[in-house]
Inverse folding.
């Protein structure tokens, strides 16, 4: 088993930049050789002959800047805000003085309009994160305008769920085989989330729809501790799904040059995807550990070590497909473990150069199958049954209704066991060069070495010829990129290009190469109105599951008929997106801003499936066959003052294409010609309303409202075939959540008590279509003619209503009818009812 905290080299890119000019207050002439210092840090700079200064590699946060020069009064600017990958600009004036006088202090104001946002950029800050009623860190972006939240995934601007790159402190945490998150950490240690749903810089690869960069806390120079607990178990039964979450964080300042942070998170719930009430076989247990250490051996070099370990394990419920609904003890359970480690080294030769070196390691293992029965503690891993003992699932009369229907499983097991591992080493070298007053150059290269393993065991119908897919591959990826950031008065531009190389480690398959140019610009039309535009090409290698699965066992043996789902294709090429965006942002009045974004995307070479005619057995295989066209408008209105803050986000969008997900056409017995339709995650209208009202006695009320069209779906056609795709829509969606927080202090210890009410109005809506396995009206009593005595092996007391030892045709008819009605699992097709949780945070 890999070590938990593996040391690797990483140069952090989770910083911003401060630049500006220092002038004489009276003459407006630039002041050379003025000292610009960030107080309580070792960061600073001196102005050049034109009064300009630059401070690179500044961690995000709030600072006080001190500016001094011989013959001038020293000035301090408080509350200077620095954000990740952004530039904070200061225009500073100093007053001449013949004698030394006390420094003057001014309060810095964060501009509402920032010109270096050449694309849509959303920042979710710590205060907002704490108030969001979400459980897992990836769902922090749920309430952003660009995000459509289906029943199973998040989709950014009409893209597939797998087109988003998730990162922690600039380190990718996506499993390259499955597209799942390899690491899950507590939202309590996240300082802010940088969400890029549109055009993003050339340094970001493996993403077409968006980037979610979660920035973790920095260790502090003073001892601090935080304990957090949240539960719904104290609530009445109707509100209780067994959810509990406990977190703790401690900051450990070892020396002036060494500070550390330790964090732990534990979550347990009896139903991890709540519906009307707790459903069986839906327990979930998660834990996560995180640590970060900062070390500054010299003024120009800074180091930090960070590591994370997480485990998530959960049972799956059969719905909305009811095949295993009455046999859940033999259904699938999942367990995922992940390890991440990082050692950060920063080198700043002078105020105009920044060198970054990155080597990172991510390791994850996903296992699923039928687990052994028993009670598991929070730190006890699932024990899975020996895959060699699995039996093919089949229908029988051993169900609550005592009759048989071929699609209702009553005996046997979930027929597949899988263990999949991914080990990813990432080496990155990049530099930021302030080569001119108006030009900042970013140059970088990235090399990724991966070891991907898989073992899949699938029980065929006769159990005598199981399918085994056992492989290990070592694909390689590398990239080179360059970007010029042009900052000229009211104009800002980013001009860059990225070269990607991808080799799949399969003999005879040539590497794939791509170039991705990206251009973005913005300019201030007035001091209160910004125009921006960007165009870019984004590529993403397909998931390695689509490349390797079952490819190694070709040609398929005849006995595998109907058992192989999808075969990988090493000849797949990266998927591609051409993205266009125009944005407007303006300060309507004090504290009130408005934003409008118009976007258009052409997506090509999407992974799909097609049937391959082969001997001795044909099969479905992945191909770059699909495309999509996405367009839309986003409007965002924000208002902030010291008593109230609010945001209204509205999205109008269209997402059409030939396939909603890679394996779509393998779900049916036919492969229709490519024809575009509204995709499964197309949502025409979507509205988010967020508000925070500060009341007396340190009380705050948060409201989150969501309204949106239902997603399209395809009704089953004749004999289960799909005649037309997504011609119907699910009902309108709406939900209101409320959080009430009360803060108070006892000595130096602060307490924050929160009450969450999810789905305040208790309005449930349908998120998935649901039907019985056959039409109930087609069940006719005259089709049942047999009498089944107690001596018959097909006799079941559940179908013998009067318990006379004989199941009559009348009893069989009604039992069968009740069974079919029960296969309409409508409970699993609707959202959860009102839920209430109470939590407390203690800051020491």
């Amino acid at each position: 088993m890999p070590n938990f905290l593996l040391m690797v080299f990483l140069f952090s890119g989770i910083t911003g930049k401060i630049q500006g000019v220092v002038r004489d207050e009276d003459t407006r002439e630039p002041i050379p050789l003025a000292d610009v210092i960030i107080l309580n840090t070792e960061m600073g700079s001196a102005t050049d002959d034109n009064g300009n200064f630059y401070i690179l590699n500044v961690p995000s946060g709030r600072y006080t800047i001190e500016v001094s020069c011989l013959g001038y009064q020293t000035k301090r600017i408080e509350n200077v805000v620095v954000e990740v990958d952004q530039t904070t600009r200061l225009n500073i004036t100093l007053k001449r003085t013949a004698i030394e006088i006390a420094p003057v202090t001014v309060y810095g104001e964060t501009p509402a309009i920032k010109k270096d946002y050449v694309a849509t950029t959303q920042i979710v800050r710590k205060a907002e994160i704490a108030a969001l009623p979400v459980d897992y860190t990836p769902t922090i972006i749920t309430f952003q305008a660009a995000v459509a939240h289906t029943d199973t995934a998040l989709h950014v601007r009409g893209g597939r769920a797998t087109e988003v790159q998730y990162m922690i402190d600039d380190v990718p945490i996506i499993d390259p085989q499955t597209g799942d998150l390899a690491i899950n950490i507590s939202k309590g240690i996240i300082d802010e989330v940088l969400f890029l749903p549109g055009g993003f810089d050339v340094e970001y690869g493996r993403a077409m729809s968006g980037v979610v960069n979660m920035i973790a806390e920095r260790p502090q120079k003073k001892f601090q501790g935080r304990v957090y607990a949240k539960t719904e178990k104290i609530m009445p039964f109707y509100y209780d799904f067994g959810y509990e979450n406990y977190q703790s964080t401690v900051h450990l300042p070892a020396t002036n040059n060494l500070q550390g942070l330790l964090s732990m998170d534990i979550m347990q719930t009896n139903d991890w995807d709540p519906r009307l009430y707790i459903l069986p076989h839906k327990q979930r247990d998660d834990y996560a550990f995180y640590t970060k250490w900062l070390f500054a051996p010299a003024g120009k070099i800074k180091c930090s070590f960070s590591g994370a370990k997480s485990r998530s394990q959960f049972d799956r419920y059969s719905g909305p497909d009811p095949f295993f609904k009455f046999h859940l003890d033999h259904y699938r359970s999942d367990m995922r473990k992940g390890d991440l480690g990082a050692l950060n080294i920063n080198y700043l030769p002078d105020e105009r150069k920044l060198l970054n070196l990155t080597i990172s390691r991510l390791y994850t293992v996903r296992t699923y199958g039928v687990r052994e029965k028993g009670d598991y503690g929070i730190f006890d891993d699932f024990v899975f049954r020996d895959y060699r003992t699995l039996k093919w699932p089949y229908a029988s009369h051993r169900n609550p209704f005592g009759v048989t229907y071929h699609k209702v499983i009553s005996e046997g097991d979930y027929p597949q066991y899988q263990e999949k591992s991914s080990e990813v080493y990432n080496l990155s070298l990049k530099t930021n060069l302030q080569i001119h007053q108006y030009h900042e150059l970013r140059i970088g290269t990235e090399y990724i070495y991966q070891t991907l393993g898989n073992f899949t065991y699938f029980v065929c119908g006769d159990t005598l010829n199981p399918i085994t897919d056992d492989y290990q591959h070592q694909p390689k990826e590398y990239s080179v990129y360059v970007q010029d950031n042009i900052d000229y008065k009211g104009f800002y531009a980013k001009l860059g290009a990225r070269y990607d190389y991808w080799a799949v480690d399969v003999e005879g398959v040539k590497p794939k190469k791509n170039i991705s140019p990206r251009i973005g610009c913005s300019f201030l039309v007035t001091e209160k109105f910004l125009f921006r535009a960007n165009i870019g090409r984004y590529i993403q290698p397909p998931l390695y599951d689509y490349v390797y699965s079952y490819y190694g066992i070709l040609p398929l043996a005849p006995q595998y008929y109907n058992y192989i789902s999808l075969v990988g294709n090493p000849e797949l090429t990266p998927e591609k997106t051409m993205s266009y965006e125009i944005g407007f942002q303006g300060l309507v009045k004090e504290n009130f801003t408005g934003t409008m974004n118009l976007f258009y995307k052409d997506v090509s070479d999407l992974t799909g499936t097609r049937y391959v005619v082969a001997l001795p057995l044909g099969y479905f295989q992945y191909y770059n066959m699909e495309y999509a066209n996405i367009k839309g408008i986003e409007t965002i209105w924000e208002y902030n003052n010291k008593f109230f803050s609010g945001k209204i986000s509205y999205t109008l969008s269209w997402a059409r294409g030939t396939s909603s997900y890679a394996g779509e056409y393998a779900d049916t017995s036919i492969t229709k010609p490519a024809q575009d339709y509204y995709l499964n995650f197309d949502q025409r209208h979507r509205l988010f309303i967020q508000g925070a009202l500060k009341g007396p006695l340190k009380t705050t009320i948060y409201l989150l409202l969501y309204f949106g069209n239902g997603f399209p779906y395809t009704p089953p056609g004749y004999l289960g075939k799909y005649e037309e795709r997504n011609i119907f829509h699910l009902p309108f969606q709406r939900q209101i959540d409320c959080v009430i927080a009360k803060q108070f202090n006892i000595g130096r210890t602060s307490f924050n008590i929160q009450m969450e009410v999810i789905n305040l109005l208790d309005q449930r809506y349908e998120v998935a279509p649901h039907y019985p396995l056959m039409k109930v009206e087609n069940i006719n009593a005259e089709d049942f003619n047999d009498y089944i005595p107690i001596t018959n092996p097909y006799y079941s007391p559940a179908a013998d209503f009067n318990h006379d030892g004989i199941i009559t045709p009348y009893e069989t008819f009604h039992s069968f009818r009740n069974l079919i009605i029960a296969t309409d699992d409508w409970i699993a097709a609707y959202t959860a009812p009102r839920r209430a949780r109470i939590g407390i945070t203690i800051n020491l």
In short: The CA atoms of residues 587 and 593 lie 4 Å apart. Helices lie at 126-131, 545-548, 809-822.
